[in-house]
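Repro:
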Amino acid sequence: MLAANNSFLYGFWQNCVPLAKRLRRCFVTCLFMKRGNLAAELIAPCGANCGICVAFFGYTLSGKKRKSVCRGCRSRASRCAFIKKHCDKVATGQLQYCFKCGQFPCERLKILDERYRSKYEMSMIENLGNIQKNGIEHFLKNEQERWKCPKCGGMICVHNKKCYTCDKI
């Protein structure tokens, strides 16, 4: 009897794991974005909007599912994924945004910005300028409109222009 129950539970668990992973990804996404409502915590120190990053949606650039969903650069214990190796101030959390640094924009940020401008039509330096000039709330409102899916209201990924909510490109 015990073996039969264990077999049933194992089979039940095997079917639940994929569902649990999907629910977790949905929960993490919904926690930060409710139908296009971005949170300030999703704007990285370098000006990247983590809420529109392919890793935040749970995928790699090649389209494969990631083992775990990224929750944004600010949620990492190590801070910003791109700048931290080159900047002690960002790595230790001394700066909320790179524009507060006397060396802004640094060479690393310029290189990153150029790559994102040419590949994804987004500028971290421009994002930081907008935050500095108009404040984070105004920036978030503009980002919500800029990256909102016209079909479902979800967020469009900056890397592949896909909406993972309704699965449209």
